[in-house]
Structures are given as C-alpha cells and as structure tokens.
Design goal:
Its cofactor is Mg(2+). Belongs to the FPP/GGPP synthase family. With about 350 residues, the chain is an all-alpha fold. It is about 75% helix and about 0% strand.
C-alpha cells in the first residue's frame, strides 16, 4: 500500500477519535445533571474506549475509500458506531470473564471496585459495585452505538441496510458470547465448535459487518459485498485463533492481558480443545482452571501444549483460514484487495 493511502487512513481514524470524543463530551455533560457517580461512570467508559487499534473503523474506512466512497464524514460516523460497539462488548466480556484489568490498567469494573475499596467498602461489596458499574457502562455504549449510523446522514434503503448489518452483528456477538459461556460449563467442545463460537462472538462484528458496511455505504455491487463478508469471516476466525495463541504464548506488555488469565480460567480455546483429544490431556487438565496457577506451572503447561501438538494445530488453523480469506481477494477490485492483503499480513504477524 502506498504511503499516501496509509496517511489518508490514519487521518480518517483520527476523525473517528474526534467523533467519539464529541460523543463522550456531550454525554459527560448530560451525566453532570444527574450527579452522584454518573460523571465518573462516563469518564471511566471514555477511558475504556481509548488506546485500541481501531480495527473496526479501519475495516469500514478501508472498504469505503477503496471502493470509491467520497463522503468521509458519513464513513467516520459508521466507523465510530462499530468502535463504540466494540467498547460495549469488551466491557461486558470483562464482566463475564471476571477480569478486573484491560491493557494493563483497571477496566471499568476494576476502577469502580477500587474506588469502592478506597471508600471503605468491603471487597465483596466493592466487587459487586464494580461489576454493576461495568454492566451499566456497557449498556450505555451499546445503546448509543447505532445512533452514529443514524447521524451519518445516510437515508433510505442504504440506511436501513446499514442498521440491519449492525443489528445482525450485535445479535451474532450475543449468540457467540452465550455459546462461550456454555462451552465453559459443559463437556469439552470440539475444535470446530470453538471456531463456530469465535466466528459469532468476534468475527461478525469485528470484520464481516464493518467491511460490508463500508461497501454498502460506497454503493458497491452485491458480489463485492458478499466477497467482503466471506473474507471478513475467514480473517476474523484466524484473528481470534491468533488472539487465543497470544493469550497463552504472548507477551503481556504487548497484549495488555496477563498470559496466565486463560490458563487460570481454563478457557476452552482451540488450543485446549485440541489438547483434550491427545494423550497429554490428563497432565494438562489437573492444572487448567486453577486460579492460583503459578508462572512456573504455567510454563510447564505451555511446554505440554507445544509437545502435544496443540500449538501447531492452532497455527495450522490460522494458516487455513488466512488462505481462505486470501482466496476471496481475487473477487475484489485491485486497490481494495491490496489494502486488505496488508491487513491480513498485519493480523497474522501478531503471533510471530
């Protein structure tokens, strides 16, 4: 991709940030009228929306600009809708996972738990306060996100299509999140069951829907919109498997999450589902899900995940879905395919 195209994309992402900042400024002013902890809730929610890589707006803007779209202001609003949706889902996901930090800092739940303990609340009560605040904050972001699409100025059938795609993204993510909860409670799932859950939970709202929204906004023909959906599905699955690999084998300074979290939780990822089908499982299963798992024991579990082939199997899945994603690029205009190829490389390189 040319340096000029990269610069334009970065400028557009800055416009997304400005759009979100205006939203949080207005919302914070509204919260002041209600007093109490509400202004703090919005300050913490605003902080939760900062610092990400803006993948979802990038998908919208990449598809839109490469397909000839010229109304940058409208595309920025649609991109901001997906970024705020991402914030909402992350805040809720942290509650479900019982995480108190994100990117090395207290998340919404952790912030309100900590101010509760500082104010003299006993820890169980402070934790309830924290999770309650996170549920409320996530609800606020979720309710507000589609309003950005409505504020884009798009009308008629195109507006309806954008809202339908967005609604399906929320619907799919909820289904995936619920599947994730149940997969953790029932029998060990298969690798394919884990991948189906990850596609619904992450791929649709992070890649499929934003790419298709950018194409719809640009007035692209249906074959292009369909190809982008298929590309987004495959690269989204690959992205999530990479994320699972990083959750065990990554560096905390880069991912923002402890590499002990998934092992202590006993999270049922592609890695674990594959390992459960091997002779190494009895050795692994007695330590997975131990909230007191030490780094030394975790290092042993990582070594076992390598020796039993789980790590290589997950990496093979990444390669397979990446190849399927790249196959869809052949049906897209050259400029768009070129930009998406750069994104594919970036996403896959995270695990190396």
């Amino acid at each position: 991709m040319s340096e000029e195209a990269t610069t334009v994309a970065q400028n557009d992402l800055e416009l997304v940030d400005h759009c979100l900042e205006r939203f949080f400024s207005v919302s914070s002013a509204r919260a002041e009228r209600y007093g109490g902890p509400n202004p703090e809730l919005w300050r913490v929610l605003r902080r939760a929306s900062m610092g990400g890589k803006r993948f979802r707006p990038r998908m919208v803007l990449t598809a839109y600009t490469a397909l000839g779209g010229t109304d940058t202001a409208a595309a920025v609003q649609v991109g901001a809708a997906y970024e705020l949706l991402h914030t909402a889902l992350v805040v809720h996901d942290d509650v479900i996972d019982r995480d108190w930090s994100r990117r090395g800092q207290p998340n919404v739940a952790g912030s309100f738990r900590d101010t509760g303990t500082t104010g003299g609340l006993p820890l169980p009560t402070a934790e309830h306060r924290g999770t309650s605040a996170a549920v409320i904050a996530g609800d606020l972001a979720l309710a507000a996100a589609p309003r950005f699409i409505e504020a884009s100025g798009v009308t008629g059938e195109r507006r309806a299509r954008l809202l339908d795609i967005f609604d399906e993204a929320v619907f799919a993510s909820a289904a995936g999140e619920m599947a994730d909860v149940d997969l953790a409670l029932g029998p060990m799932p298969t690798v394919d069951e884990v991948l189906a859950m990850e596609r619904a939970k992450t791929s649709v709202y992070s890649f499929e829907a934003p790419l298709q929204s950018g194409a719809v906004l640009a007035g692209a023909p249906e074959p292009v919109i369909a190809a982008l959906g298929a590309f987004g599905r495959e690269i989204g699955i690959a992205y999530q498997v990479v994320d699972d690999l990083l959750g065990v084998f990554g560096a905390e300074a880069e991912t923002g999450k402890t590499v002990l979290g998934d092992l202590r939780e006993g999270k049922r990822t592609v890695l674990i589902a594959h390992a459960a089908s091997t002779d190494c499982w009895p050795e692994l299963s007695q330590h997975l899900g131990d909230p007191g798992l030490t780094e030394e024991r975790a290092a042993e579990l990582r070594a076992t995940l390598v020796s039993c082939g789980a790590k290589s199997a997950a990496e093979q899945r990444v390669a397979e879905h990446t190849a399927l994603a790249r196959a869809e690029l052949a049906g897209l205009p050259y400029d768009l395919a070129d930009r998406l190829e750069c994104i594919v490389t970036e996403l896959v390189e995270r695990a190396r």
